[in-house]
Amino acid sequence: MKKRQANVRSPLTPDRKPVRCTGKTASGGPCRAATVRGTQRCLFHTRDQASRIGREGGRPRFQYDVSKLKKFAPPKDAGEMRLLLSTMVIEMREGKIEVELATKVSYVASVFLKSAEQEDMKFVKAELEELKRRFASAPVRGGGDNVRQRA
Q1: Nearest 5 degrees, angle CA 65-CA 71-CA 74?
Q2: 45 domain residue, yes or no
Q3: Same domain, 72 and 132
Q4: What's the pLDDT score for residue 140?
Q5: 127 within some domain
Q6: Closest among 44, 46, 39 to 26, alpha carbons compared
Q7: Are 81 and 74 in contact (CB under 8 A)?
Q8: Over 50: is that where the pLDDT of 9 sits?
Q9: Which residue, of 39, 96, 109, 122, has the fewest CB within 10 Å?
Q10: pLDDT in tens, 62-119
Q11: Which domain holds residue 98?
Q12: Which whole-number Å values give the CA distances from 23 to 11, 37, 57, 114, in the listed order?
């Protein structure tokens, strides 16, 4: 049984020559892209699109003045980090910082908050151990009928 082929247009002209772009790649080789209908060049080589796209991709798309950003001391706890992040959200919405930079800072902030949480848990564990030690060594008060005996 023969497989049915999809109806795919071939990039061939009536004389069976491939229709490929006549432009050159950045490395100097021939461009292998298909041409735009009615031209001899691909989409990127028509109207010098390739050089324009290369220029835009090669330089930073968003530049901001670092001196306009609010100065912060390094955050010491989760509350200070929360203040830093909320200020950064406002600056991002006002266009003072790039979204990519805010994303990177948020990632670093999440690592900071995770380590701060672990540090807090050490203190909580130490306090619980101290309470446990005090409770175990404390004398039992009362002794009336409504005090349960430990088994």
Answers
A1: 130
A2: yes
A3: yes
A4: 67
A5: yes
A6: 44
A7: no
A8: yes
A9: 122
A10: 566 667 677 778 888 888 888 888 888 888 888 878 888 888 888 888 888 888 888 8
A11: 66-137
A12: 16, 15, 20, 53
